[in-house]
What we know:
The protein contains two helices and eleven strands. By secondary structure, it is of the alpha/beta class.
Amino acid sequence: MKQNYTSSLRRTLSEVCSIMLAPLTLLFALFMPNIGSWADYDFISDDIHYSINADNKSVSVVSRFWKYSGDVVIPSTVVHEDKTYRVTCIGEDAFWYCSITSLDLPDGLASIGRGAISACSSLTTVICRAEAVPACGNIKFSRTPADQATLYVPASAIEAYKAARPWKYFGAIQPLEDYGKSAAFGAP
């Protein structure tokens, strides 16, 4: 009789714990996407984490959850172990929940991953030097005040950015040549 009671009590406690942990598991899954990717990087240069792409000639900026802050400048190229790589991608969730105020993206940028610039509530300025609008797939600047921020792009590409999602949601899209004149961001 005692064994049945103990076994029943264990089973009940196990079920109660499972019921109590289910909402926490769901919340974790919703608010902490791609947690495994945050640890995946090949090298660090000037406090930016990079992953070498499959072509072995280019790199992607990768996430360092809550690590990037202030004015962030992504260079066109980086050197690692005496090899120069072009920066062509901002990876998924790269700046997710970071307290960045400005983001300067390189001219060779080809793509931006899902959620890369999400929940950046302090972001006021983005400089995108790419003539061709970087592919963004389904990214949105969710929980980032893009409608209150200024996007600076090459003058010849302004109309293309104004027509492209999610870029068209910026409050203002200005020629790159004007950003040095802005009080929000110093001259290059």
